[in-house]
From TrEMBL:
Residues 133-142 have a biased composition (Polar residues). This is MYB-like transcription factor 4. Transcription factor. The keyword Endoplasmic reticulum does not apply. Residues 9-61, 62-112 form the Myb-like domain.
Length: 230
DNA sequence: AAAGCCGGCAACCGCCCATCC
DNA sequence: TGGATGGGCGGTTGCCGGCTT
């Protein structure tokens, strides 16, 4: 049914890459560039699926990769981006130079998820686990709350080209105060880091150096519109 | 020392989307 | 316009090494 396989499975190697295979792949790409992944294995003399070559190159062999532990800043940024984008690992990786989507995905599943749970935070909704409104994502999708609808409306208005099917969950706030910025809470703009926005409707908008710009929205490092939609 | 368990991570799978013809 | 193709992505699997019993 459907499409043909991406390669001839019967004559391809699987599993861990050997040093020799790595060398062949790197040498080929250095000389010819990335080009067509499907034809690359044959051209490079590799008994590998083209997709496997692409993955190996992108995740481990690319010269611009940053290896080693994630920093606290990277941790924070991943959490913030995940609360905004959900499991869009490639988009998240696009904001972390030298990190790959696969690396971030693994790191999330093995470290950050556990860390959030231990802090009493639902890693999917980014809301306190004990909160009655901290429903599961499927519950929220089936029966979106007022705040979910409000957030989608705001994002649609501010970023019409952003995929609204993403799961977007800013830090939990009382719904009405969240919306209006009253009672000492953040308005939508400030809660997502867009402080000093012309649309800011709360008293925090003019506070400078508040440290709540981990996404880089205020500084312009991150802009919804500039998220790389590869 | 050996067996079992568990966590981390590299790699694969299958689907989706954009592009080409 | 619609099918074929290739690239890209998220989810999942399975291996391996370290730890515990």
């Amino acid at each position: 049914m459907g499409r043909s396989p991406c390669c001839e499975k019967a004559h391809t190697n699987k599993g861990a890459w050997t040093k020799e295979e790595d060398d062949r792949l790197v040498a080929h790409i250095r000389y010819h560039g990335e080009g067509c992944w499907r034809s690359l294995p044959k051209a490079a003399g590799l008994l590998r699926c083209g997709k496997s070559c692409r993955l190996r190159w992108i995740n481990y062999l690319r010269p611009d990769l940053k290896r080693g532990n994630f920093t606290q800043e990277e941790d924070d940024l991943i959490i913030k981006l995940h609360s905004l984008l959900g499991n869009k690992w490639s988009l998240i990786a696009g904001r972390l130079p030298g990190r790959t989507d696969n690396e971030i995905k693994n790191y999330w599943n093995t470290h950050i998820r556990r860390k959030l749970v231990s802090q009493g935070i639902d890693p999917t909704s980014h809301r306190p686990i004990t909160e009655p409104s901290a429903a599961t994502s499927s519950q929220r999708e089936a029966n979106p709350s007022k705040i979910d609808k409000f957030i989608k409306e705001q994002v649609r208005e501010k970023c019409p080209d952003l995929n609204l099917d993403l799961r977007i969950s800013p830090p939990y706030q009382n719904q009405e105060s969240f919306k209006t910025g009253t009672n000492g809470t953040f308005c939508f703009d400030c809660s997502t880091g867009i402080q000093n926005s012309k649309d800011c409707s709360c008293k925090y908008g003019n506070i400078t150096n508040s440290g709540y710009d981990s996404l880089g929205l205020k500084s312009g490092v991150l802009d919804y519109r500039r998220l790389e939609m590869k």
